[in-house]
Amino acid sequence: MQVRRLVMAWCVAGTLGIAVPALALAAQATPKNATAKCTDGTFSTAKTHVGACSGHGGVATWYKEPKTRGPTRKSTRLTKRPTRQT
Fold first, then answer.
1. Do 37 and 57 have their domain in common?
2. E strand or H helix at 62, and its extent?
3. What is the DSSP letter of 15?
4. SS3 for 44?
5. Which domain holds residue 13?
6. Alpha-carbon dihedral angle through residues 71, 62, 54, 69, given to the nearest 10 degrees
7. 25 and 4 together in one domain
8. CA–CA separation, 65 and 34 (whole Å)
9. Residue 74 half-sphere exposure, CB side, CA atoms within 13 Å?
10. Which of 16, 30, 44, 65 fits as disulfide partner to 36, beta carbons 3.0 to 4.6 Å?
11. How many domains does the chain have?
């Protein structure tokens, strides 16, 4: 009877030893302003894709697209005229 209780206690302790750390990792909240999660588990608040999670192994998941700069403007520069050949 005592051996049975001891084995049961070890099983419960072993299960808790595995389950509790896994639950703690899953409960990690995503910051409000995070735009991506890096492959090492850290979060990025990069405004553009360029350089996001650099030094952290790259981006694992994008949460929201970084804001763009808005509509692009057409160039106001005049094009060159062809040169006359004489």
1. yes
2. strand 59-62
3. H
4. strand
5. 1-29
6. 10
7. yes
8. 10
9. 3
10. 44
11. 2
63 belongs to a structural domain? yes
Position 38 in a domain: yes
Return the CA Rg of the chain. 28
**CB–CB of 57/39 below 8 Å?**
yes
d(CA 40, CA 56): 6
Q: Amino acid identity, residue 7?
A: V
pTM confidence score: 0.45
Give the count of alpha carbons within 13 A of 81, CB side only: 3
Residue 25 tokens, joined: 């990792």
**So what's the pLDDT on residue 80?**
66
The string of pLDDT tens digits covering residues 21-64 is: 655 555 567 888 889 999 998 999 988 888 889 999 999 999 87
C-alpha to C-alpha distance for 37 and 56, rounded to whole angstroms = 10
